[in-house]
């Protein structure tokens, strides 16, 4: 790999570019992994800040956002757009529709029928004691071609209807995909402000904010991270999550998912120059060529000197290296065909069975006719074999063959594919009236055979606009947001500070878009509810964040399905630490050994106190359909020495409870009627949630329908069916 860097022009460290880095240089840099990448960045740029300086961007303020600068970067490094795969034309769709086994059988039968309909052997008469006469009705002979033509016409209609449906739906889906891509946004820092921009507007040099759940839209180098773990299986095939650290692995690749944590990265490659873009380009080229030419793997690409996918002499093999070696024989990979649906599979088997049965019966009929002819002619009537009569015998055999083919053609159900296609096309049309776009006809079959719908709760059955409506603070249960002067000052300070720093900095409350509207919630909705709670208490969480920027956070234990909580550690000037934690109330209350009371001091939190809080506060909130969140903190004095931050079981014990809040997320008004219609159609509707079981029951009562509940630990707990 090192030779690649040095042999390309002035090499990776040449920096002969308007921005100090060329596109090819950055592409080669993104091929490195782990400590090798960290070492190369240190060698060529000093550190990540040096790379940012070369790209003329600030790790803190990002790009200035001037249109001319953004345009220049797009021209130099490319736009963050991957050209879509060329769609099939109408004739290709017709050809694909004709690959159905039923249609193939019909076409073969129609061709044979048409061919025989134009064959008219001369009439032949055989005079003997019981003369056998073959007489053809001229009117029937002239109309024999109609059957074959009708079969071909039905095949053409089926192919055209299927192809037209595929073509029109593909066109609609491309338009929808284009609109979705235009609406898809990502958080970047420009001019010192965190803003959301379209993914297609991201350019090299942007400082992007990444967090749990994000699908990375571009390649980048990590600048700052908090317990960041990424699923790179889409690129490397490895299922284990990769932990990203500034001293271990700083490469973030497009198309990968952030599974834990948060952080910031400087964008280094976009569009077709990113790792996922390169893969899409190669896969698209391979599909267009039918198969990737293995002889061209590793040969020079205009963008990648020395072969982007060669096995490197100086380092390990990089991604997408071909599996075959030169000594192994080339094996042509079979072209993968689309898997058939259940209905298509049944129809194909039925067509084959009918064809086989028809073939057996027609062959048996021809055999019986031939045997009958031989017995009647040479045995019963005693006709002597004569070579002069061979043409007459052949004419009889041809007539018997025509009868057999006719039976075969009649056995094939030419109306079946047409009836199925028209009925599915009608279903597609009806679904379109309900704003349901169906790309493939066989998808209607899947929808029609659905018996169960498992629905997420938050944002699907509910409005996903969360607000804190109840709170348990200082040993008092408030059924509404309390006035700030009713809360002890030190508890209020802990509450606001804990919410401010222990919510992702990408979550925030923005002014309403129109006068009289509701404030906009940006980011995680639960965290937005907590941030809104601080505003309702007439406090300013942003002032806390300005005082403690994200870069000063000592350690962050991000939320995941295992922890069911999020914790942020701050280092105090005296060397001690304070950790703020929020999470599911049932779990965190078990880890609390103290609780803040109305005097503002911490008091012991015994098992009987805990049970009372759960019974009187948590369960009452949950019975109202509220999501309960516990807020707590823990101090680590200097006298206790440096904690073992990797021992989470020890870190997350001995907490002090600050408050328990109840968050409301109302059920969407249209949900009960929608569930009622599903049940009338014989579809069981279940709700899958990780909330408290009492919260799930309350939502069930709101929807008055079936619910499938998960308890707060994420384990299967209860199945409640109210049908």
From TrEMBL:
It is an enzyme of class 7 (translocase). Its EC number is 7.2.2.10. GO terms for cellular component: endomembrane system; plasma membrane. One of its GO terms (molecular function) is metal ion binding. It is a multi-pass membrane protein. Keywords: ATP-binding, Calcium, Calcium transport, Ion transport, Magnesium, Membrane, Metal-binding, Nucleotide-binding, Translocase, Transmembrane, Transmembrane helix, Transport. Residues 291-336 are annotated as: Disordered. The chain crosses the membrane at residues 93-119, 145-164, 347-375, 400-426. Signal peptide: none annotated. Its main location: membrane. Pfam families: Cation_ATPase (PF13246), Cation_ATPase_N (PF00690), E1-E2_ATPase (PF00122). The keyword Plastid does not apply. Residues 42-118 form the Cation-transporting P-type ATPase N-terminal domain. Residues 298-316 have a biased composition (Basic and acidic residues). It is found in: Endomembrane system. It comes from the Eukaryota. NCBIfam families: ATPase_P-type. This is P-type Ca(2+) transporter. It comes from Oreochromis niloticus. The lineage of its organism: Eukaryota, Metazoa, Chordata, Craniata, Vertebrata.
